[in-house]
Sequence to fold (316 residues):
Amino acid sequence: MKDIALVGCGRISGRHIDAISKTSGCRIALVCDVDEAKAAATADKVGCPYVTDYNDITGVDVVSVLTPSGWHPKHASELAENTDVPYILCEKPVSLTLREAYEMFNRVDAAGKTILPVYQNRFNPLVRFTKDLIDSGKLGKIHQFICNVLWNRNDDYFKIGWHGTRELDGGVLYTQASHYVDMVHYFFGEVVEHKGIGGSLRDLEVYDSISATMSFPHGTVGTINATVSVFRENYLTEFTLIAEKGTIRLSGTNLNRIDSWDVEGLEKPDIDFAIDHVYGKGHDTVYEYISQERWEMFPARSDVLSGIRLMEMLSY
Fold:
């Protein structure tokens, strides 16, 4: 049984609680938040103790860092240095800047601990299927991709203290589209060249809309368009892949649907991937891998750093 501590009892903690509850071999042993009312309410819901200082955490196998994005490097590093927890699971993004990311990895390494980055969309069945298809060579050369993350976050969302701030949010590529930045690294490797334009159209400290073009080592080129300023509600998430021997278009919440399939010699796969909430099912897989001690299934450090490099250069 893996005992898990949650640090941060905000919005995303509910998804982690749900995923852990569905995972045989994992349980929540402790929760932590500087807001004692939040910590107490979450602890009561889960049925476990709480603390308000993460330095008091002890005796668990994994701690999940679910705090505002800009605090991830500090919190992960101090948990590694000041507690006996061997594995630190860190929600996306692990950092807003490359400098802080390198510092965090170095501090965690020096403490003899391990960072487990959460980019759960990698575990989406259609994303994994597409990755395997690309790697198999059955598509031939990958010419181009188009990735659109066209969402809505209303004004009330940005009234939450850290949302929309330069210090802790980072903007649309970090807080909303970072999974898709990670996905293109997962598919194609490190970015070779990139150009992008961002707009702070709602007078936030960060970009709410970004359009970026990039190239990869084998000549693949593509675009990521991301916004949180769609009228009224989320409009579209899509990924189109144009290759020598096929064209594929995925769409739906977290890319859970095949809209178009034309691949030489291959029938459209029959993959059932119904989603009942906005975050998808990838967190379930994250905790399954923790339960099974399959640490190698988490994103490679080089991918994480390359993704942060791209987000930072396009967002600041």
The radius of gyration is 19 Å.
